[in-house]
Amino acid sequence: MDKTELIKRPIEKELGEFRELFESSLESSNPLLGEVLSYIRKRNGKMMRPILVMLMAKLFGHINSSTLHVALSLELLHTASLVHDDVVDESDERRGQSSVNAVYNNKISVLVGDYMLATSLWHAAHTGKVELVELVARLGQALSEGEIIQLANISNRDFSEDIYFDVIRKKTAALFTASAESGALSAGASEEEVSRAADFGEMIGIAFQIKDDIFDYYESPELGKPTGNDMLEGKLTLPALYVINKLNDESVRELALRIRALKASKEEIASFVELVKREGGIAHAEQVMYEYRNRALQLLPASADEALRLSLTAYIDYVIERKK
């Protein structure tokens, strides 16, 4: 059986209800807004975060209206943040497709992103639980703070893995943390269970980002980006940081600083990519990724329903085995 089918099996009915809610949230009677929202809707991904919300709700109780609305709130917030990120990064593509700002323009992208943020908050309020509204608000803060830390880090002469993990906890991992935590909260889980769910989500989110960072070292038409694309944007991730600190070579550090400052040529970036591969950067990142995968598995309750345990295990494995 395909892993995605195994993941969805315990929540097939509720996932269908969620998709209907998601589709209806991205509609508008305004012609231009409706057109842009339709474009965003068609680019919609695998719904990995809403699926996690629903699986965690089922793990600790039952999926209810609050579960569906908070799952939608988080997905809209996530999508809006991607629309805004593409403007900030001046990116023309997102996962192999033209970004919203490339098809329309920056002004429209920012305004539509703002509209989606407002819609996200409306659905958070519709849960009827102030804890879930607070959770969505905290997530919005974390995502923005992560972006700011990442921008500030471009001028940093240190190559700290601690800063790297701080950024991804506030960006990618924060979304998975909030998804798992909100699912447990919506189902009425205990304080200890909610905390455990949040930790589970964070482990998955960190593994997810490390996998994304590994992708950057391989040419991939599926991802719609060339090798070293992150470095073209001045971003140095775990594989590179490991090698820079391992070698402690001044010429390597100077090249890394040039990459951060957006002064390195494509040829220099290509040679740096090969250096990172040759010196074990990918192997190190994969090892760390599997450590987080195993820590996530250990957080699953021993009393978990077998179908849910299989589904959540498949979810974790999908995150680290995916091809895009």
From TrEMBL:
Residues of the signal peptide: none
GO molecular function annotation: metal ion binding; prenyltransferase activity
Cofactor: Mg(2+)
GO terms of biological process kind: isoprenoid biosynthetic process
InterPro entries: Isoprenoid_synthase_dom_sf, Polyprenyl_synt, Polyprenyl_synt_CS
Keywords assigned by UniProt, alphabetized: Magnesium, Metal-binding, Transferase
Family recorded in the similarity comment: Belongs to the FPP/GGPP synthase family.
Protein name: Polyprenyl synthetase
Organism name: Phocaeicola coprophilus DSM 18228 = JCM 13818
